Amino acid sequence: MDNLWFRCFGPPAESDAVRLVCFPHAGGSASAYAPLARLLTPRVEVRAVQYPGRQDRRRETPAGDITELAGRIAERLRAPGGRPYALFGHSMGALLAYETARVLRSWDVQAPVRLFLSGRGAPSPVPPRSDLLPDDAAILAAVRSLGGTGAAVLDDPEMVEMALPALRADYRALAAYSWHGGDPLDVPVTVLNGRDDPVVTAEDAARWAEHTSSTFEVKEFPGNHFYLDQQAAEVAGVLTDGLRQAAGR
């Protein structure tokens, strides 16, 4: 896989491990998945996507379009005959994982064995109000309101200056995105959500069922939008079970 776009954390995976491709949240980077990777390897090979404009790619221009970014990622996943793989995305990453799967389907290449979609309501023609943020102050306020360990860096002006370009681009991309229909994916879907998420309700999560013709389930966890920070072991268990089922293990 493309070393520019994917980061691998934890010990080497076993030769027959299922690959889990992880998509970070808005403003996030591949390293957000390092704790989860350490819990899943070596039975699962975790590859986290590194979007342009952050960490070691910070000198690149952040992507400003969800569908275009999904196409660029899909291009690097399309190799036929590879090991079984699944997609996991949190928040904005859930939308990117879904759109990446749709691009791959349009190319008629090896499909993921399962989608894990976390912390994001199902797409619709109208962007959620939480995506429509008019300026940097509103973006920073929204990030603070979501909590999570990353919100603490917003108290450091230098860190804010470094984080803002990616955050700004990601929220603009989310505000510009709209879903215009299409056939459901024929891929099993597991939706994960925090019970106290301030922007994703249980109803929002359940509407993902409309986007698959295969099996569907919702897993709810204690916590807010970034429940993953506190529930990593429990999430790892759900991912492991879902991958085992989807890969016929």
From TrEMBL:
Keywords: Hydrolase
InterPro entries for the chain: AB_hydrolase_fold (IPR029058), TEII (IPR012223), TesA-like (IPR020802), Thioesterase (IPR001031)
SUPFAM superfamilies from the UniProt entry: alpha/beta-Hydrolases (SSF53474)
Signal sequence, start to end: none
Domain Thioesterase TesA-like: 21-243
Pfam families in the record: Thioesterase
GO biological process terms on file: lipid biosynthetic process
An MF annotation (GO) of this entry: hydrolase activity
Family, as annotated: Belongs to the thioesterase family.
Protein name from the UniProt record: Alpha/beta fold hydrolase
